[in-house]
Design brief:
This protein is an alpha/beta fold and 403 residues long. The protein is built from 14 helices and 9 strands. It has helices at 2-15, 92-97, 125-134, 163-169, 172-178, 212-219, 241-245, 249-261, 266-274, 277-282, 291-299, 306-332, 348-383, 386-393, and strands at residues 33-35, 79-85, 102-107, 142-145, 180-182, 237-240, 287-289, 334-335, 342-343. It has a 5-stranded mixed beta sheet with strand order 3-2-4-6-5, with helices on both faces. Strand 2, helix 2 (92-97) and strand 3 (102-107) form a beta-alpha-beta unit. The chain is globular, with a radius of gyration of 24 Å. The protein starts with a helix and ends in a 10-residue tail after the last helix.
Length: 403
């Protein structure tokens, strides 16, 4: 009898009717990204037939979601940033750079604090799910899930890898429209095809592939296993309240229980979820928004289209290569900054040639930096115009729309 009750409770968590939301908003996910297609779900469960016999196959990971639309004043949206941290992590940058920001900081390894998850496992997953469970009935309009480090390689490079700039620039209206927004725009690593459940050998960067098929059956038992999972790394994203509550709270509890009970390590269980969030909140195994659209509509940096954005990226790569060449030269030679003379533990003439070459490279580097800075400034000016943002991203725009 106890088993039957448990089974019915689990099914209820997956099959509870969706909350009915208002009509759809034009210019959705499908217009600006590569994805694995949309899906339909049966409105009733046909108890007389097995799940595998029902057509079309039920896709119950994400409840039906429709945006309620965007108000004309984005300043009125409430937002909270959720951050998991360890006791030793320094998050003073948040108060310094974002003093008016509402925060939910969970200390993962200190159960004596007011805000802590049930267990320090699954990396950020445990904290993210705990916030959704704890605050399901009192959510703000926008919830941003971020890591505790201000500067890190997986932040957007157009913001100097600075989390504070990313949070400040994030367009609330974009989150309201889309429901789920990955905070990283660069595809690599993670897009266009990343985790493959069929992989038979471990790779250092994708150790979770070998167990993905088993985990999928446990996490999404009614959904067919995708041929791949992909989105830009690294588990930093924003959600609208409507998107969150389109999924029953019991489902979030189920997923957190999975993290608590799985024998998988902290690292592997967290990695499984890093490339599963997009499936949960969009229903797509592949969620790879075009980079220039992500920057433009998501953060207000609009270069004028894919071609001009790619020109900027190509120039930045040349700048980075030049910087690397200068650094390699500096490891071998010492340049006296006072008088411009050069010295080496060898031939003075060769050292002088290097000094001249070093000066030329630095001049080229400064020119590239100036060019890149100018293009970024123009892109930010363009992104401040709501009409131009909509035009670049393929969205409908009407006079008076201020988002």
């Amino acid at each position: 009898m106890g088993f039957v009750i448990t089974l019915l409770a689990l099914l209820h968590g997956f099959l509870v009717p969706d909350r009915k939301l208002d009509g759809p908003q034009a210019g959705g996910l499908e217009e600006t990204m590569l994805d694995s297609g949309t899906f339909s779900r049966p409105t009733t469960l046909q108890l007389g037939r097995s799940w595998s016999d029902q057509q079309p196959a039920p896709r119950l990971a994400m409840a039906t979601f429709f945006s309620k639309g965007v108000s004309k004043s984005t300043a009125n949206y409430s937002r909270v940033v959720v951050i998991p941290k360890m006791k030793e992590d320094d998050v003073s940058w948040i108060a310094e750079e974002l003093p008016k920001l509402d925060l939910a900081i969970y200390i993962a390894d200190d159960p004596t604090t007011l805000m802590h998850p049930p267990k320090n496992k699954g990396h950020e997953v445990m904290v993210y799910l705990s916030y959704l469970i704890d605050n399901y009935e009192r959510l703000p309009d926008v919830v941003i899930f971020m890591h505790s480090h201000r500067w890190t390689h997986h932040n957007n490079n157009l913001f100097g890898f600075d989390a504070a700039q990313m949070i400040n620039a994030l367009n609330n209206a974009h989150v309201i429209r889309q429901g789920y927004v990955n905070m990283r725009c660069q595809w690599s690593p993670g897009c266009p095809e990343w985790l493959r459940p069929s992989a038979m050998q471990d790779t250092l960067s994708r150790q979770e592939e070998r167990v993905l098929e088993r985990c999928w059956k446990e996490l999404f038992p009614f959904d067919p296993l995708p041929s791949y999972l992909s989105q830009p790394c690294c588990a930093q994203f924003a959600l609208s309240r409507d998107r969150i509550v389109s999924i029953p709270q019991s489902r979030y509890i189920y997923y957190r229980d999975w993290i608590l009970r799985t024998p998988l390590s902290d690292y592997i269980s967290g990695r499984i979820w890093e490339y599963s969030w997009q499936f949960l909140f969009t229903g797509n195994a592949m969620h790879c928004p075009l980079e220039h659209v992500c920057y433009c509509d998501g953060f207000g940096i609009c270069f004028g289209g894919k071609t001009l954005y790619q020109e900027y990226i190509d120039l930045s790569h040349k700048r980075d290569d030049l910087d690397a060449e200068i650094r390699r030269g500096n490891q071998t030679y010492f340049i006296d900054g006072n008088n411009g003379s050069a010295s080496e533990s060898g031939d003075d003439q060769y050292a002088a040639i290097h000094a001249q070459r070093w000066a030329q490279l630095n001049m080229q580097f400064e020119e590239m930096e100036h060019e890149l800075s100018g293009r970024r400034e123009k892109a930010q000016q363009r992104g401040a115009d709501p009409r131009l943002r909509a035009e670049e991203c393929g969205r409908r725009w009407r006079e008076g729309d201020g988002f």
